[in-house]
Amino acid sequence: MNNLPTIMFSNWYHWSDRTLINNCDSAGVYLLAKFQEKPSGKANMLDKNIIYIGETCNNDLKGRWRQFNRSAFQTKDGHSGVVL
Question: Are β-strands 29-33 and 50-55 bridged in parallel, bridged antiparallel, or unpaired?
Fold first, then answer.
């Protein structure tokens, strides 16, 4: 019997639209990628444009993204995955 959850990612979203993603107030795994143009379709964890794969730990996706945003774009502490 397989009780493992199905791994599903949403479509790609622009960083500024991240809070529009369904269930972003839940825990999860997220992919950050850098593209010249937004791709269509579901995010693929094997895409060569991915620059970071993260997970929530005692947080929800929205909170973790807020921490990433502060670290990446405001040079504040909160997300160790950001290297400037």
Answer: antiparallel
**This prediction's pTM:** 0.78
**Around 73, how many Cα atoms within 13 Å sit in the side-chain half-sphere?**
8
Written as one letter, the residue type at 24 is C
Q: Where are the beta strands (DSSP E) in the chain?
A: 29-33, 50-55
**Each residue's pLDDT tens digit, 9-42:** 999 999 999 999 999 999 999 999 999 998 999 9
CB 32 within 8 A of CB 50: yes
User: How far is 51 from 6, CA to CA, in rounded Å?
Assistant: 23
> What are the residue ranges spanned by the domains of the chain?
15-73
